[in-house]
Amino acid sequence: MTEVVVLGAGYAGLKTVRDLQKQSGDFNITLIDRNSYHYEATELHEVASGSHHADKISFPIVDVIDTKKVTFLQDNVEKIDCDAKTIQLEKTGSMSYDYLVISLGFCSETFGIQGVRDNALEMVDINTANQVYEHVLSMMKKYRETKDANLLKLLICGAGFTGIELAGAFADERKRYAEIAGVKPEEISITCVEAMDSILPMFDRDMAQYAMDVMEKRHITLMLGAKIKEIQEGKVVYTKGDDDTTKFVEAGTIVWTTGVSGSHVMETSGFAQRRGRVVVQSDLRHPNYENVYVIGDVSAFMNPENDRPYPTTAQIATQMGKHTAKNLAHQLKGEATEVFTYNEQGTVASIGNTHGLGKVGTKSLKGYPASAMKKVIVDKSLVDMGGLKELLAKGRFDFYH
After folding, report:
1. Residues 232, 304: one domain?
2. Is 295 helix (H, G, I), strand (E, B) or coil?
3. How far apart are CA 199 and CA 204, in angstroms?
4. Which residue, 258, 275, 299, sits at the end of a domain?
5. d(CA 324, CA 321)
6. Same structural domain for residues 299 and 384?
7. Which structural domain, as residue segments, surrounds residue 97?
8. For position 399, what pLDDT does the model report?
9. Angstrom distance (rounded) from CA 190 to CA 130
10. How far is the C-alpha of 112 from the C-alpha of 106, rounded, in Å?
11. Are 164 and 228 part of one and the same domain?
12. Which of 355, 359, 391 has its CA nearest to residue 372?
């Protein structure tokens, strides 16, 4: 029997499995992930702020796969050998494959800045998002004892999508944090430190300005043009503009959201990669291996308009998964593969539960309509990843508040 192995149950990997398992044929699928669940990575900020429990944005993998066609294995991938057609797993050991889909996801990128790993919190999965939330709560409780005002300060490194969404979620919960600390809500400060002189370069100036205005109204401080040089305990060291003089800002909670790279397994396995991403062929296969697909956050699929890789998003990962399942079905039948074309449908970011901005098709959205659209997108993803059952159990239907 032909063995298809899929590494990673994120958007790309799980979509591949869910579509391929519908095909008939003499093949078995093995899905491997370090977790027993799939989670909506675009909603991690809500877990990190405490707006939602982790169960709201995750579900067991075995609930959404056909166990007659798919074997799920919870394990850590350590190394891939495409020449030998083997994978080295932490607990299971070595296993072989006929076709391989590498969709191992992302990890936080430090850019070599000292102290990030030791003194800042990551937000890259359910566990780290929970750690952010638990840390915030511990700082609020500790303030009651010490009255150290720095414990009331929440500082986010980076004002990209992840950073502003986390800031907005923190703002939603500001009143609750204040009650725990025994202070007024306005005493809970939220700050984003950003190296660029503006935010959200994927939008036009009007949209970016709108986002900054919303953040100002929500009492979120933006420190633009602040280049982070080091993270010390409770302190972010930075320079401003062309001045090399270092300054610092203190905070009890420091969250690192400045960037991501593909899984370290790509480098460990000897792939030609940059920041954990491998440039793939037009059909999403590895350029040297016709039986290996590289998709999601570990894939660099080039945009022909600017010869740069498309950004890694849940949207492109899901489309890659769907296309990979189609191409695998072709290969299993001895047919030619098809070229992948990315259909960008738009981008929406939330700045809290009822504020947002984005672009869907050619239409720009601001405020409540954008926040409602973000929830529609989450619901669509739940259908893609888990079906109607998961939508009804986990869906975002709070469109009016």
Report:
1. no
2. coil
3. 10
4. 258
5. 5
6. no
7. 2-108+261-344
8. 54
9. 18
10. 17
11. yes
12. 355
Angstrom distance (rounded) from CA 342 to CA 301: 9
Number of domains in the chain: 3
Strands 235-240 and 243-250: antiparallel
* Alpha carbons 197 and 163: distance in angstroms, whole number: 15
Question: Contact 379/391 with Cβ under 8 angstroms?
Answer: yes
Whether residue 107 contacts residue 124, with contact meaning beta carbons closer than 8 Å, is answered with: yes
Residues 212 and 277 in one domain: no
pLDDT in tens, 54-86: 999 999 999 999 999 999 999 999 999 999 999
Tell me which residues are annotated as active site: 165
**Judgement on whether residues 135 and 236 belong to the same structural domain of the protein:** yes
pTM over 0.90: yes
Does the pLDDT value for residue 290 go beyond 60? yes
**102-111 confidence digits (pLDDT tens):** 999 888 888 8
265 near 79, Cβ under 8 Å? yes
Q: CA-to-CA distance for 231 and 331, rounded, in angstroms?
A: 49
135/399: higher pLDDT: 135
Neighbouring residues of 292: CB distance < 8 A, sequence distance ≥ 6 = 82, 99, 100, 101, 102, 285, 286
What size, in residues, is the chain?
Answer: 401
pLDDT (average), residues 185-213: 92
- Name the domain boundary from 243, 258, 273: 258
